[in-house]
Design brief:
This protein has 5 helices and 7 strands. The radius of gyration is 25 Å and the shape is elongated. The mean pLDDT is 93.
Amino acid sequence: MEDIEMATLQDIIKHVRKMQFQHSDWLYIAGESSELTLASEAALGNPDIDEETDEEILPTGFAERGLRSTIDVDTVSTCIDWADRLSGTIDDTAALDIIRYYIRFDAWPETLNAPDPPPPEESLRRSQRKYADNLGPENVMKECRREGCGRGTVAFSVFCRRHHFENIKNCPYPFDD
């Protein structure tokens, strides 16, 4: 797509809906992605790569306008399609919501106006808790094989919950139970 002087994100969304872009284009935006609006300055462009430094060379005039690359135009198109499916209509505000979410988190929200995903540490802890809980109760009739442990074993293991977790996950058991 030719550089549109002072284009907005809404202009870009309209061009993408009309398939007026090159598949090598990227979406460039001004400002922080968390503050992206339909009125935010944006452009589509095709960056070059400096062969010596392997760094991106912005299209002419983009640096002066404060534009930075975000996601490729095919992903923008997919964001727009996803937004239209979630909203049940052609909705630029929904497209903005999905584009902003995808740029920020490199993920697809399940709903419009989805809350931010939990931090990685919280996701890891939830996953570990789920794994530990799925081990089921300890059978006190069979003693854990870890030397010095007097707890019972979980199903299909020779270890208690704590030691089975540590053996399989190769990290310390993170809970107090």
